[in-house]
Structures are given as structure tokens and as C-alpha cells.
Amino acid sequence: METNSKLKVIVEYDKCCGAGQCVMVAPAVFDQREDGIVIVLDAEPPPEQYAAVREAVAVCPGAAIRLSESA
Amino acid sequence: MMKTPPRVLVVGASVGGLSVVEALRREGYAGGVTLLGAERHLPYDRPPLSKKVLTGAMEPEKTILRSESAVAQLNAEVILGDPAVRLDLGAREVHTAAGRALRADVIVLATGLEPRRLPGQEKWTGVHVLRTMDEAVALRADLLQHKRLVVVGEGVLGTEIAATARSMGLVVTLAGPQSTPMASQLGPVVSGHLAKLHTEKGVELRLGVAVRELVGGDDGRVSGVRLENGELLPADMVVVAIGSRPATGWLAGSGLDLADGVVCDARCRAAEGVYAVGDAASFHHEGLGARLRLENRTNAVEQAMAVAANIVGKDKPYAPVPFFWTDQYETKIQTFGVLHPEAEVAVVEGDPEKRQFVALYGKNGKVIGALGWNAMKTIRSYRQLVVDGKPWADVVIP
């Protein structure tokens, strides 16, 4: 189902609950501050990261991560 | 390659149900999908309801999990505000309150929980339960108008609501039969620290005594909570948070085993072509060799992903490392594994006095759980000890 569009990672920081699930799923794209809040390491990750990033969006327990797709 | 079913019906449009639909599409499933929800809202997130939505820091609409356009992209039929009332297992057909009959090749049950209530509580105004967005809005309105709150129930939800209401300036009493808050979730050591935190913040703890009844005035409004020892806790309003039961009443007589929620196998299958996901699903965890029913947010999503994989023929047993978190005041508690209340507990990093620590839970000589108290980043590195069931003696110095 992967398309040719480019993915951009968008985080709503006020929704981040610091669970770190995104870091476990996509460590090349996400990290955490000491207080747990997400750090986006790569807001426009390469296509080989897309599956991991989509899973991070799915498992984020704060629903804080979105993707925008552009051609 | 196994043939995928032409039509999937997901009953329950909270995070578990939505996640099944999303995971099916990520798996490349191109068949027909229907998502049926009892509430009129688009799928929304429940954890903020007892915290930021109550304080007003988050608008209720902000809990909506996906925008309308994101939901539209799932190419699913979404039916909201119409509860399922009956399952015909043989015909694989779900009947709804509005009279719909929805037939599918695979049905996923994700109807979640419903709060337990005290007998007779509907007699009084000013008595709340909290499960839905509408209930959160009603509770917030009452919290803004009143001063004295009694929370009945010292579990996760009750303690979170007590913390939130106290931070909003209310006079709060927390009542429940266990001797410390969240004792059955955290065990005596950590729940002792939690009791201390609530006391320091000014919450009155009336624990270790069961609640006998609610009392009210001639005006029909609740005025207090009577404990089994006779003590009367005065209240302008009461929250009843005494746990939940799986919302499976509509499945009675369907032929499914409903011993504790929907009883499933290790692949979350309850019957041929029927799966269960989320708070109401009791599944066999192959790794632990035990039956589990997990009432938490991350389980709903992970289990949904496993079920979607099974629907498209991947044959995937579901054996998660349970994770849950609670935010109370400025304290954030996160846990991995199953924190058996009788487990040994050892603080392995930080210091409870400094309000930042990691505790490990051990049973039968193995690490079974890890808990971080304001240790959001460090706790993750302890997860692997739980996964591996590391020998207790290797990680804890006696």
C-alpha cells in the first residue's frame, strides 16, 4: 500500500504522554527528553523508515503523532 | 497464500476498533470494512478524560483520534450512535438498536467496558461515573460548581480523578476498601508512596474501609458517603470509580464464552470468524502461559494490530509486554509487565524520597515487571529485563 508520496512527521507536543512507544518502534526517527516528551530526530524520514513511522503513529498512546503526505 | 475474507465488521468504535480498521488497511487488506460505534462521537481517546479534559487544559474535541478526512481515507463504512444489541454467531450477523442487520465474514468485538455502579446511585444527582466523553463534560461542569468531592474507588481512575480535582482546588476525599491507593495495581511498596503523595497534596484518604451507601437530601442531591464503620464523608458531589465490567451484555446467549469478557485463544479468536480486541478481550498469553484481560490503552492498539494480522492470514499469537501509565499531579508513573501485588519489589535506581526512581517486581526468582516514577526515559531500558524474565538475583543486590 506504500505510495510514492513523501511523509512528514507532525507532533502535537501537548498530547505527548511520554510513554516512549515511538522510540521503541522507530528509534531512528524519535527520541525522548529526560522528562519523557518526544524529540523528532528526523521530521522527513527516508522511505525505508515509513513502515516504522506509521507503526509509531498507530501505537502512540497519546495520539500525538500525525503524518502529512505530499507528492 | 490464504484467502482473505471479503467483509470485516468491527463492533466498537473506540481506539481498539479504530486501530483494527487502520491496521487492516496497513496490512493491505482491500475488502469491505464496517466500523460500528455505540456513541455518536468519532473515535476518541479516553486517558485524557480523567486528566486534561477535566481541568480544561484540553478541549473534549481534542481527544478525537483521527480527523474526518483521515477516517474517510480508511474507505470504511462508519456507523456511529447505534449500539450493537445481538450477535447471531451462525449467520455472522450483528443486529443494532436502530434495527440494522450487519453481516460479515469476520466480526471483531471491541465494545470495551462499562463502569460498575453503587446500588441505588441513580437516585441522587451529583453522582458521576467516568467512561465517556459526555460523562467527562458533565463531571467537569459539576467540578467547576462545587467544593467538596468524595471519590469512591482507589484504583487507577479514582486516584487520577482525585488528583485532578485536588489540583483544581476542590476539597477531595478518596475512599475505598484497599489500604493504599492502587494497591492491587502497584503492590504495597509503591502504593505506599502514592498514598504519601496524595496526602501531601491535601487529599483526605479514607482507605481500608468499604463504602456502605450514598446519602442525599430532600432536594434529591447527594450529600455524603457512608462508610461501613459508620463514618459519614460529607460531599457536594461524588465520583463512583469502583471498576468496570466488560461490555458484553449484548453477547449473552450468542454462544460465545463470556466468563470474563470475551474468552479468546492466543490469536484473540473467540470463534470461527470472530475475534475480540481491547478491554473486553480475555486472551491466552503464550509467553506467560496465562489468561489475561488488560484494561489499558496500549493493549487496545497492539491487540488490534495482532488481530488485523490474523485476519489477513498471518497467524500471529498475541503475547505483549503489558504497559500502562498514570499521571497524577506532576508525577508520571509508567509500568512494564504484570505487577503482581504479592511480588517482591526493589528500588534499583533513583530514590523515592527524591521522587524519581525505578522499581523492579520479581516473582519465582524472575523479573516480572518494572515501574518508573518520574523516570520516563530511563524506564524503557528496563523493559528488556521483563521480556527476558531475568533472574532476580542477577539484577537485585540483596
Walk me through what this model shows.
The complex is a heterodimer of chains A (71) and B (398). Chain A is 21% helix and 25% strand. Chain A has 71 residues and is α+β, with helices and mostly antiparallel strands. The radius of gyration of chain A is 11 Å and the shape is globular. The relative contact order of chain A is 0.35. Chain B contains 9 helices and 27 strands. Chain B has 398 residues and is α/β, with parallel strands linked by helices. Chain B starts with 6 loop residues before the first strand and ends with a helix. Classes of the chains: A alpha+beta (71), B alpha/beta (398). Chains A and B meet through helix 1 and helix 2 of A and helix 1, helix 7 and strand 23 of B.
What's the structural blueprint in terms of helices and strands?
The complex is a heterodimer of chains A (71) and B (398).
Chain A: E1 6-11, H1 21-25, E2 30-32, E3 38-40, H2 50-59, E4 65-70
Antiparallel strand pairs in A: 1-4, 2-3
Chain B: E1 7-11, H1 15-26, E2 32-36, H2 52-55, H3 68-72, E3 77-79, E4 84-88, E5 93-96, E6 101-103, E7 106-109, E8 113-115, E9 127-128, H4 133-145, E10 148-152, H5 156-167, E11 171-176, H6 183-200, E12 204-207, E13 211-216, E14 222-227, E15 232-234, E16 237-240, E17 244-246, E18 262-263, E19 269-271, E20 274-276, E21 281-285, E22 290-292, H7 297-311, E23 323-328, E24 331-337, E25 344-351, E26 356-363, E27 366-373, H8 383-388, H9 392-395
Parallel strand pairs in B: 1-2, 1-7, 2-3, 7-20, 9-16, 10-11, 10-16, 11-12, 18-21
Antiparallel strand pairs in B: 4-5, 5-6, 8-17, 13-14, 14-15, 19-20, 21-22, 23-24, 24-27, 25-26, 26-27
Helix pairs in contact in B: 1-7
